[in-house]
Amino acid sequence: MYLAEPLLFALAVLPSAHASLYSKKSPVLQVDAKSYKSLIAESNHTSIVEFYAPWCGHCKNLAPAYAKAATSLQGLANVAAVNCDEDANKPFCGSMGVQGFPTLKIVKPGKKKGKPVVQDYQGPRSAKGIVEAVKDKIPNHVTSVKDDNLESWLEPANQRPKALFFSDKGLVPALVKALAIDFLGAIDVGYVRNNKKAASKYGVDTFPAVVLVQNGDEPIKYDGEINKLSLTEFLSQAAPPNTGASASASSKPAKKDSKKASKNTKPKTGDKADAGSCPHAAGQGATSNPHLKEDDAEPLESPIPDASEGKAKPAPIPVEPAPKLKVLESESALQKACLSSRSSTCVLAIVPEGSEATELPLRTNLAETAHKHVQRGAKIFPFYEVADTNEGAQTLLKSLKLPIGKDKQPHVLAVNAKRGWYSAYTGDVLQRNDLEKWIDDLRLGDMKKETLPESVIKQVAKEAEKEDEKVVEEILDEEVEGVEHSEL
After folding, report:
1. Of 11-20, 52-61, 70-79, 90-99, the least confident
2. Cβ(352)–Cβ(394) under 8 Å?
3. What is the CATH number of domain 143-235?
4. Distance (Å, rounded) from C-alpha 328 to C-alpha 456?
5. Alpha-carbon distance 90 to 96, whole Å?
6. What are the helix (H) ranges across 194-255?
């Protein structure tokens, strides 16, 4: 009896094999096989879902960063978690292709309700990395309002209320996209960027600003704080938001008590979680032993406060360098990539041959800008480097009446031969911020376009063009069908 009492006590304090990593107060939404469809698959909002096992060391290390990301994304997207160690969830986790823990998947609403697009998240396992990737996948139901479409947008046949968001920033903020989703079909949301006509019409002289326009009523200017809850209340005077538009754990600002939910799982690197994986397949009878030894799992800190806590320096995390720009060395390579009649948008850095000093920052800035978008999983057009001695580049520059020569500045151009336009970057090639803003304008379609001379476009036979399009369509169809079948 003397030996049994300590043993019983030890068993009593052991964590449950199926215990969740996230408490009920956590901003992370708890999802299971039954609730996934209604909370995630049928949601109008983008979601990120973590498939985990409570005994997995890597899952425990990720938990604080994941909870922090959930706090940052509240009201913007769903941040959910599925406990794959629960018997009822094992078949579901297996059907989602989970082979190790933690597995993160971004779920974006598809064209058909309940048939979302599911993608594996392969980015940094940090709060910042997760937040940026999810924000980039938020559907955009916001109309870009400009001088030429302002009046027509204000007076459509549906006569719905309008919400105008004025800003001097480039891309549509995630907050505005989220509000457009919440009020989809009830309030039309427009984004006004540096539009003097619209700003003058509604008396806007500072940014950001929000104006609510209702049919026949005086426009109402918003004078509160720019946050999701306050703006939702403001817009609700015109129309109620969609019920069940978001499956977030709470619509209220999260309390800073996420430490309690993961006090036993805080890694020494703060919100930087290790990028490892526990190699136990879901749905295959994985051992549910909370004391299972994992050779590559980092030891957990004691829940007892330590006087030295916080003094340890975070371990350095290797950063993948941006790959160099691809060089188009021949005229035929340039024509095939960017100057054929079926070539879509691409960015060309045309530099004097043999240049190393002035043009080196340009190469680096463009390469890092492209790499940043790729890491976030965003769609971005290709970037190429071309020497100005390339015959195709010389023909292009002469047609556009741009200077050629070793002593001249390099040229940065965006060309779309398929649609017959080009846009020349006129800023300082050494200023990365200016280049990034120009790239953002390209993505938004807000840059000035000029007509690309037909003489520089290599025409492709229609039969070959149709054949290529047919192959592309077949490949895309196969990919879409594969996602719907294997992931859902």
Report:
1. 11-20
2. no
3. 3.40.30.10
4. 16
5. 10
6. 196-201, 228-235
Q: How far apart are CA 139 and CA 452, in angstroms?
A: 32
Instruction: Tell me whether the omega of the peptide bond preceding residue 323 falls within 30 degrees of 0, making it cis.
Output: no
Omega cis (within 30) before 91: no
Report d(CA 454, CA 456) in Å as an integer.
Answer: 5
Q: Check if the beta carbon of residue 58 is closer than 8 Å to that of residue 276.
A: yes
Q: Torsion over CA of 118, 124, 126 and 128, rounded to 10 degrees?
A: -80
pLDDT tens for residues 14-65?
Answer: 444 457 899 989 999 999 999 999 999 999 999 999 999 999 999 999 999 9
Cβ proximity of 75 and 178 under 8 Å: yes
DSSP 429-446: TT-HHHHHHHHHHHHHT-
Which of 290, 286, 272 has its CA nearest to residue 100?
286
Q: Comparing 236 with 428, which gets the higher pLDDT?
A: 236
* Paired tokens of 336: 């095939």
Is-contact 286 280, C-beta < 8 A? Answer: yes
Task: Give the separation between CA 283 and CA 24, rounded to whole angstroms.
Answer: 25
Burial of 50 by CB count in 10 Å (0-12 exposed, 13-18 middle, 19+ buried)?
Answer: buried
Report how far residue 422's alpha carbon sits from residue 417's, in angstroms, rounded to the nearest whole number: 8
- Extents of the domains making up the chain: 143-235, 326-456
Pair of tokens at residue 449: 């376009």
What is residue 231's predicted lDDT score, i.e. its pLDDT? 96
Helices then strands, counting H and E runs in the chain, come out as 15, 16
Q: Which strands form 326-327's sheet, in the order they lie side by side?
A: 326-327, 383-387, 346-351, 411-416, 421-424, 450-451
pLDDT exceeds 90 at position 117: yes
Give CA 295 to chain center in angstroms: 33
Equal fold, 143-235 vs 326-456? yes
* C-alpha to C-alpha distance for 23 and 154, rounded to whole angstroms: 46
CATH architecture label of 326-456: 3-Layer(aba) Sandwich (3.40)
Neighbouring CB atoms inside 10 A of 169's CB total 13
